[in-house]
Design brief:
With 296 residues, this protein is an all-alpha fold. Helix content is 89%, strand content 0%.
């Protein structure tokens, strides 16, 4: 009799465990299917909102500059804050980037017997790709997260709703100065990365790899053109605008209290980096097609 009860108890326990496992499986499957249905729609809404916000901000920026309504004081404050937050990290990242490129191109040039071209290769790599991407990534990590946290905190405190009730445009008052400041700071940081990266590559090539200083500078000057710098600055403008628009859109759409602000900051960094990488591939490919180069 006792054995029969123990057997029934084991069977009931096993049945309950099987039922719980199947219930958990059904819940996970339902969540996964719902995520697959919701995610494309949410992604399209997010991209569409960012595009609309970017267009409106550019319109307001042009109109405010022409009419003299541009919030210049806010622009100066935001530019100073962005520069203070991103300059030192950008310099510290530019140094190893320049050295790494010098090492790689120096080894490659030595293997093919063209050591004199190491300066042109590493310098052009810094200017064409390294400088705008390093500046943009540091902008996304340091500046974009700060912008999103600021606007997200204002959103959960209902400050943005209060501004709209008083007839103050949130886009014109908060987004436009941050967009202009991000573009200006992005271009400035790109110039800093160009200088620091080239200088680091030059010093490493001369003092560590025993390269000729004149050969490094001469080959770089022979192959680098003004068009390379113009393309780099164009990328810096586009990347700065992307970081500002994504950060502002995430901050303005924050919900859920302090936890929502943290989620918005995290999604800002991830979305900005993914979008920057994608745009960089497109811009680089278009530049290679529309502006082909001869030689290196």
């Amino acid at each position: 009799m006792m054995i029969s009860r123990e057997t029934d108890a084991r069977e009931n326990t096993r049945a309950a465990a099987d039922s719980g496992a199947s219930s958990a499986t059904r819940e996970i499957t339902a969540w996964f299917r719902g995520y697959l249905r919701r995610h494309p729609v949410t992604a399209l809404e997010t991209v569409g909102g960012q595009f609309v916000l970017g267009v409106r901000a550019l319109q307001y920026l042009c109109v405010d500059i022409v009419t003299g309504r541009f919030a210049f004081a806010e622009f100066v404050r935001q530019a100073a804050f962005m520069a203070s937050a991103a300059v030192l990290p950008t310099i510290f990242v530019s140094l190893p980037i320049g050295v790494t490129l010098s090492i790689q191109f120096g080894l490659l040039a030595g293997q093919v017997g063209a050591t004199s071209l190491a300066g042109a290769a590493s310098g052009l790599a810094v200017i064409r790709q390294g400088a705008p991407m390093v500046a943009a990534l540091l902008m996304a990590a340091a500046v974009g997260s700060a912008i999103c946290a600021d606007l997200g905190s204002r959103k959960i405190r209902d400050e943005l709703d209060a501004m709209e009730v008083m007839g103050v445009s949130v886009v014109r008052r908060l987004v436009v100065p941050r967009l202009a400041a991000a573009v200006v700071v992005g271009v400035s940081l790109t110039g800093v990365v160009c200088f620091v990266g080239f200088l680091a590559g030059y010093l490493f090539n001369v003092f560590v790899q025993s390269g000729a200083p004149g050969s490094f500078v001469t080959t770089f000057a022979s192959f680098a053109t003004v068009g390379d710098l113009v393309l780099t600055l164009f990328k810096a403008v586009v990347y700065g605008a992307i970081v500002a628009v994504v950060a502002c859109e995430k901050g303005l759409s924050t919900k859920g209290g302090p936890a929502g602000v943290a989620n918005s900051v995290n999604s800002t960094v991830v979305a900005s980096i993914l979008l920057l990488m994608t745009v960089n591939v497109g811009v680089t490919q278009l530049s290679m097609i529309l502006l082909p180069r001869q030689g290196l």
